[in-house]
Amino acid sequence: MSDLPAVRLLDSTLRDGSHAIGHRWTPEQVEAIAGGLDRAGMHAVGVGHGDGLGASSIQYLRALHPDEELLRTARRVLEHAKLAVTFQPGIGTGRHLEQAAELGADLARIATHCTEADISVQHIGVARELGMDVHGDLMMPHMTTPAKLAEQARIMVDAGARGVHIMDSAGALTPDDVKARVVAFRDAFGGDAEVGIHAHENLSLAVANTLVAVGEGATLADACLAGAGAGAGNCQMEALVAVLDRVGRPTGIDLFALQDLAEELVRPAMPRQPVVDRTTLTQGYAGVPGSFLLHAQRVAERFGVDPRDLIVEVGRYQAVAGQEDLLIEIAARSAADRSAAAG
Amino acid sequence: MRVAILGSGNIGTDLMVKVRRAPALRLVAMVGIDPASDGLARARALGVPATDAGLERWLATDPRVDVVVEATSARAHAEHAPLLAARGIRCIDLTPAALGPAVVPDVGLDRHLDAADVSLVTCGAQATVPVVAALSAVGPVGYAEVVCTVASRSAGPGTRQNIDEFTVATARSLEVLGGAAAGKAVIILNPAEPPIVMRNTVYAEVGGMDPAAAADAVRAAVGRVAAYVPGYRLRADPLVADGQVTVFVEVEGAGDYLPRYAGNLDIMTAAAIRVAELYAERLATR
To answer: I need a surface site. Which of A84, A215, A252, B68 has the fewest CB within 10 A?
Structure first.
């Protein structure tokens, strides 16, 4: 066991977990949760709107508190853990990265769709120049082959990313899918960068997939307290810490402290606990981004349609992360079709 | 009116088809720098004077031309603009250089009919500013947000290497041309096969604006744009609720030289032609 590389855990409760609460984290919650994660020994703590810097909008929902306020609070309480921010080219701009760097962010996660890595080159460069460590995130990795995904990851590494995460936005990957992608990344990187995993729970595989990834050599793993997160939620952090300990890959993180944070601060904050139910399972099955969940539910209610129909239809359009507007359009069209038929 | 096209790539070649079709415009030259370019070969085959010698050497031949349509790159345009200005040749710029005032044919172009150089900003601006401007004509628009989704294959390396240029310029045009107090723009590249047609969602915060007036203004604006971009249409009727207007428009290309899905490119070349036609109308009435 001692020859296996250490796995470093990156918490995303205050970033991806924002999706579970409509991007409504408060500075008080950030202070308590980020502070607790830091004391428990977390490697990095991601903070901000669930769709990344500058995403507070009509399309992605407005955050209750601006990213700047939450980042400033987190910076104040993090003593050891890195402060991480997520950024999607096309949604945020370089100005948002500059602002995050000024507020003390250490790690910039630059995220693109799985086949569009070249649009990250500009911002990986910007983040590096600002003195931040940079990781790439390839979203919706079920939509391309392991070999093509690894080529895309290599573009991010060549641009300056020190790690690239397989970001299973739809929770659609099976363990074999994860294994093939981690192996392809390792071959493509040749030691130039680390491999990371970011699993979602839609197919009830998040911890299992994370375990498979680290078994194949991934050394970075994202997870959220109480399994917070978009869709069915992310890999549950406290469960992952326990499992890694049991399989002989201890993280040095205080398990009971994480459990207390999850029970006392994160679960009570979520109006609806992330769960594998008919809607979120359909997301994983249809390969639709988990971030669409809250939007699908709201739109379904507004137009009187079944959210599953919306999700399946959006999947048919081969929607990528960020296309939340498509849900409204499809619902509006289907409502119009129905009233036309009725009339 | 005599028009020359600068640049013989995909955009320049699509422009050639459109200029030749416009009764008020006469294509006098296609100017490129690549002897092997398909665009120049097509131009020659159609009897259009074509040169691969570049702008400077073409200008040295003292060509008789009223307007140049720039379809090269932002960097090249920065070099070309002074050369054109020195000879009094007006320029319609499709690159992101943004040297001249930003224009959208349907939106207050009158103010810039005498500008030496006008910029067509971005495809996102061409597709969404008319909608926002139409709402602003009805009442105050506090905030406009647009999400432009284009096929990956239609996004060239220039766009991909500098995606901020797109989002920043488009957002600014929502304010400057669209009249919104604040603007935000998002671009999404979708790699689906077969490639998707460009789609745009416009969200506008309009306070207590009359819903019927808002929807009518949007429909009318879409009709005006469709007059010069035939594939520009509403995907669904405008939604107006709780002080917010939501509009879905798609842009299918005309398929002149560029593929039909690339409505984001077609709306740029079609807008350039529309601006040139407005110049020609003005020339004729002088």
So the answer is: A252
